[in-house]
Request: fold
Amino acid sequence: MQANFKTLPLPKQARLFLARLPERTRVRACAQLAAAPMRPAAAFWIDGFHNAVDGEDGPEGRLAVLLEGSEALLERATRELRSALGRAGVPETRVLDAGARESFQRVVDAYVACLGERSVTYRIASSPQASEPNALRANELARRFELRADTIVDVLNGDIILRVSDFDARALGAKIEPFDDALHEIEPRAQVIASEHPHRVYLRVWGKAPPAVAQMQALKTRFDPNRTLNPGRFVGGI
Reply:
C-alpha cells in the first residue's frame, strides 16, 4: 500500500481581516467577497462561536477573511477588500498580520469544537448563492426548538457549519432527536461532524445516502468482503 501527496509551500505572508457586520450588510458583503477580482484564500461569515473564534459580532454577525501572498499582493488585495466591504456598508475592519494564521486556524478548529456533552455540530453542504438563506433557515429551526445556534458559513464554497447547544446535556437530549428529524426534512444531506452527547448514536449522522451508495457498497464488498475496515461506520452502513 502506498499514498502519494502533493505539497505546496505556504505563501510568504498572511493577513486576516475581522469585521463586524452592521444591519443589512451581510448579503452585500458576502456577494462582494465571492466576486472579488483577487480571490481571498478563505472567507467566512460567522455568527456566534464567541469563545472559539476571534472578533466580535455586529447585528448580522462578523466576517473573517484571510489573504495570502507576497507583500505587494497583500497590499493590493487589502485595498480592494476594504473598498469592496465599504461598498457593502461595512465601515471598519480589524487587521491581523502577526498571528493571522493562528487566528484563522481557530476558525477551522471551531468546526469540531464541542461544548462538552451539550452540543451537536452539523455540516450542511450548499452552494455559495444559497448558503446565506439556508443558514438562516437552519438557525430559525434551532430557535423553534429553543436551542442556541452558532454558525460558520464558508462564503467561497457555501459550506455551512451549524452548532446547536443547550444549557446542559439533559436539556439538549430532550430536544436533539426531534430537531435532527426536522433538520433533515429541510436539509436531507446534513451530517453530524462533532458531538460528545450520548444521543449521537440515535442521530442521522451521515444524512441521506447519496445516489452512488449502491456502487460504494459494491466496492466495499469487493475489497473488504469480511467487513473488517470500519464496519458500519460510514454512510449507508458501509
